[in-house]
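Technical annex, item 7. During the second reporting period the consortium partners agreed on a shared format for inverse folding records so that results from different sites could be compared directly. Each record opens with the tokenized structure and is followed by the designed sequence. A conforming record, contributed by the partner at site C, is shown below for reference.
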């Protein structure tokens, strides 16, 4: 009865005289494990002051001393004031972490209670924003160590997965040489910095000795993260499709993020902008999230509509994960979206981590989706490489066979020309020599013999001129073209047109030889088959392209498909491919034929 009267009296004293006694009394006995004193994510209404404040009493209800760990789960708090009786303890980011007694990623203060001792404790946390998430948790020693070990194990698994994911992105970049993987690695690297900062791990283990880094690592990571995102989105969608609408959409996204970065920099630089102007800042954050999500969805829709590439679907699904993760991450800091607070507060296991567990799960799910996407694309790339290797092998064999057949054809041509010209000249010379008799008019016979010898020598020179190239190593391009087509010039009306080609413009020796042979082959075809009277050779040089066009007014050809290509055209194609160029033929029975040769200058100079 007396105990009830005391409890009632204490209740009324606490109710009307809370300035004298603390409202909450926590009993520390043999059954005590853990109690959550304050959790902003569970509050129906945030405190309107510039501080999060809570007061409570700890009462050791046992006959032995007790040690409890007071954890303020907010690793980025600037100023934390703990008052125990008449003792004031100051914690927060303004103090170097290496000076702290307890090496932990949260702000931890150890409270010792003597038998039957009561301590009144006040906790005062300065808020950076109008809304701010924070938890105050009291643990006994065993529970504190147990929860910390669970958190370390969980973080070890997460960082291990993230490390393997980075290796996967780097390996895939080495394999594909695609800049997307470098940009996406940068995005996740800056996200890793944010995770390390907001979990307190970075503050304790990486930049604990430098308060300058502690103050500015957050801004550096966020601005770099946004910049990498903008670069990734612009690069990906700019490659997927190019039209006026996409450029307008991408520019609007860029300006929106630049505006957000400007607002964020103002918040960082001007410390006076804290509470009076933070509500607009929150609205800007929400608006930018909605704008970002809408633009990514719109770009994915337009891109898939124009290209039907399945990579767009993967990017959309990854973007959804990323946006959800981002939204939860921001709300975990500000705690201003009420319906998201229970999700941020959701935990599979008891944890003293500041970052929501749901963020880690979403991140790992995102890594899994990207890994599946990369694996599928890797498989497709392997198939394409196998097909490319097979095609390359086929083309190499085709080129070798074409080269062998071309050699045989050249031998046949050489043999035919020798039989038709030199052999005929020798027969005539032989006949004149048989008719030679000293008693006859030997002057006339010897003159004929000498004339036949001169004709034979001229025919030999003509044949060797066709089959033995002159010294082409340092010959300018104009000289190469005129030398290769001089037979056309001698027999037909030939007109040269050079555009932006200087008289001393020179190609590599390999390009000189191949272009000389290509033009020589085309010249022979025109003289033998075209029945042309006029030939135009047009040479155009742009910034990085060289184009050679040979047009005649002959009878043309009916078809230039692979089945109707002769050895000559196949030889030309083989030489053009060897210079990484392009070759095509346009023919009209009434307007003759034109041969087009296109080369990139960086391959032939």
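Designed sequence (site C submission):
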């Amino acid at each position: 009865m007396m105990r009830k009267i005391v409890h009632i009296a204490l209740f009324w004293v606490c109710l009307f005289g809370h300035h004298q006694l603390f409202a909450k009394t926590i009993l520390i006995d043999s059954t005590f494990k853990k109690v959550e004193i304050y959790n902003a994510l569970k509050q129906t209404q945030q405190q309107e002051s510039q501080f999060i404040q809570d007061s409570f009493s700890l009462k050791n209800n046992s006959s032995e001393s007790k040690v409890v760990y007071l954890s303020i789960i907010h690793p980025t708090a600037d100023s934390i004031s703990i008052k125990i009786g008449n003792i004031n303890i100051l914690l927060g980011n303004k103090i170097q972490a290496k000076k702290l007694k307890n090496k932990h990623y949260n702000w931890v203060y150890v409270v010792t209670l003597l038998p039957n001792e009561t301590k009144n404790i006040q906790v005062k946390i300065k808020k950076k924003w109008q809304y701010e998430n924070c938890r105050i948790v009291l643990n006994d020693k065993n529970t504190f160590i147990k929860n910390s070990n669970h958190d370390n194990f969980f973080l070890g698994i997460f960082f291990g997965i993230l490390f393997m994911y980075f290796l996967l992105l780097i390996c895939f970049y080495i394999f594909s040489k695609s800049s997307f993987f470098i940009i996406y690695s940068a995005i996740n690297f800056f996200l890793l910095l944010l995770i390390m900062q907001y979990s307190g791990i970075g503050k304790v283990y990486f930049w604990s000795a430098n308060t300058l880094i502690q103050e500015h690592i957050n801004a550096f990571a966020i601005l770099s993260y946004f910049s990498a995102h903008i670069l990734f989105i612009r690069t990906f969608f700019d490659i997927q499709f190019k039209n006026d609408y996409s450029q307008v959409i991408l520019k609007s996204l860029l300006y929106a993020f630049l505006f957000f970065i400007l607002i964020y920099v103002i918040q960082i630089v001007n410390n006076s902008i804290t509470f009076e102007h933070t509500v607009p800042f929150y609205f800007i954050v929400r608006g930018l999230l909605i704008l970002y999500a809408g633009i990514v969805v719109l770009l994915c829709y337009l891109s898939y509509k124009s290209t039907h590439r399945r990579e767009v679907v993967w990017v959309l699904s990854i973007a959804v994960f990323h946006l959800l993760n981002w939204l939860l991450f921001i709300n975990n800091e500000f705690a201003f979206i009420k319906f998201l607070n229970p999700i941020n507060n959701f935990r599979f296991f008891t944890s003293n981590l500041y970052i929501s567990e749901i963020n880690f799960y979403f991140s790992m799910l995102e890594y899994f989706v990207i890994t599946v996407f990369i694996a599928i694309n890797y498989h497709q790339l392997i198939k394409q490489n196998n097909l490319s290797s097979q095609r390359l092998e086929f083309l190499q064999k085709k080129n070798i066979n074409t080269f062998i057949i071309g050699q045989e054809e050249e031998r046949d041509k050489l043999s035919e020309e020798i039989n038709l010209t030199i052999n005929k000249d020798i027969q005539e010379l032989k006949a004149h020599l048989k008719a030679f008799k000293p008693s006859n008019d030997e002057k006339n016979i010897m003159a004929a013999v000498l004339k036949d010898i001169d004709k034979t020598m001229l025919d030999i020179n003509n044949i060797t001129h066709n089959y033995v190239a002159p010294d082409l190593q340092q010959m300018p391009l104009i000289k190469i073209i005129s030398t290769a087509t001089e037979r056309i010039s001698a027999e037909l009306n030939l007109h040269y047109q050079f555009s932006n080609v200087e008289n001393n413009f020179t190609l590599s020796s390999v390009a000189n030889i191949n272009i000389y042979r290509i033009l020589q082959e085309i010249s022979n075809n025109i003289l033998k088959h075209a029945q042309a009277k006029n030939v135009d050779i047009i040479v155009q040089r742009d910034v990085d392209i060289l184009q050679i066009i040979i047009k005649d007014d002959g009878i043309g050809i009916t078809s230039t498909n692979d089945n109707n290509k002769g050895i000559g055209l196949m030889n030309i194609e083989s030489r053009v491919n060897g210079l990484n160029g392009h070759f095509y033929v346009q023919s009209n029975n009434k307007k003759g034929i034109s041969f087009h040769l296109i080369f990139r200058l960086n391959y032939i100079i």
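Confidence is low (pLDDT under 50) at residues 3-22, 272-277. The longest strand covers residues 51-60. All partners now use this format for quarterly exchanges.
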